Amino acid sequence: MANRHNQSPNKGHEVIEKYIKESGEDFTGNVRGNVNWATSEEVNSLKRPTQQDYFDAIHQRQTSPISEETIVVSKDQKALNLIFRNGLNIRDMGNPMFGEEEKTNKKNFGHNITRADTQSNKVCIIYGGDLLGQEWELSNLNNAKIIEQEIPVSAEPSLEGLLEFESSSGEKQESESIRIKKALFFALGERVKVLKRDLAFALRFPDVDIYLVNGAQEEKINKYFKIDVLETIVASINNPRLHYIRGINTIINVEKKHENGESTFGTIGLLTNNSLSKSMKGQAAKNAVRMNSGENLADVVFVTNTNVAGKKGPKDYYVSSESTFVETPKKKNPSERPRNYNTFSLRMPANREFTVVEGNIPQVNPLEMIVYSESVKNKVLKDVLLERIEQKIAKNTMYQSTDLVKRANIYASRNGIHPIINEEEKDEKSMSDL
User: Fold this and answer.
1) Helix (H) or strand (E) holding 277
2) pTM of the predicted model, to two decimals?
3) Fewer beta carbons below 10 Å: N end or C end of the chain?
4) Average pLDDT of the residues in 324-336
5) How many H helices and E strands in the chain?
6) Quick check: helix, strand or coil at residue 393?
7) Helix (H), strand (E), coil (C) string for 115-168
8) What pLDDT was estimated at residue 267?
């Protein structure tokens, strides 16, 4: 551990205890199983691992590329509507969540869920990684800024009746406020609380399934604390509509049931390990995704936590994030992220074939439908009338030809008139002229 200014014998221990306490016992229970956090006595007593320990460890690190979860679209549901929510960066000060303070972010989120129309469609919300931020490490506590605030005593009930001061007259009076100092640091425990509140908001909407997926931030947390943080969150909420998808490059099976009892099947791919990339152009971002998350062979692929947004290939959709700024190299002025490209409507007309609408299919307004039907009817009537007029004109117009006799005969045949001259007479007349 790095040396600190004003180091005392107990300061290092107190900082670590504060860090573990604020991070939460549920998430730091295994942190002392790391050599870096073990005491010198524990390190001295460690034994050498065996070959079987190695095999057991690598088996635990392997993740199947095919998710155990299957999205089922019932026969009564028209489409599969996906709403992505990623790049929240909860409680990060360097790149915070966009619109959290004025609550516009949550308002837009709820609006997207409502527009997805759970009564007619299968609606899934995918929390696509980079949810818990980056500024949760012990080094951030070591360098945290100390702020001083004056708060009313009512905000700290435990202090009521204890805060007294002497006035200039020597009389004791109770203070109405107190100045306190805070370390401006938000540990993992606070970040998890905020994410749980966000999930609780989404679960308020009926018939919505929620899927949590790891990003680069969650992978770093899991490695640091020796836990699976999203799995812990899902287990603590314990809601059948809340699911956890392992891995950062995964494929989800989709089944669409039909009225005749048959089903069509397809796959959706997720690539979420991309916040390490600073690329800000399409092709460079695609190359970075290939390096960070790998290839995905699903029928349609959604890529999260990049600096770009939009359709970047025949089946590749790069989803916008909720963080305020794009990821840039250090000391570079960041620009705002692209946003509002995070909802999709999918239909599956055949096996392994998706029709993707960018955004939700709007609900039909009855009055607009009447206007549309009338406009279509008028167009059809117009086309029929024009065709009949053209037929009438053609019937009453002589055929355009250089052969006058042929033109006259065609006109006569159209109007039921006996031909003026037949072909034999025409040939005889031609011979007599010679």
Assistant:
1) none
2) 0.76
3) C
4) 82
5) 13, 16
6) helix
7) HHCCCCCEEEEEEECCCCCCCCCHHHHHCCCEEEEEEEHHHCHHHCCCCEEECC
8) 96
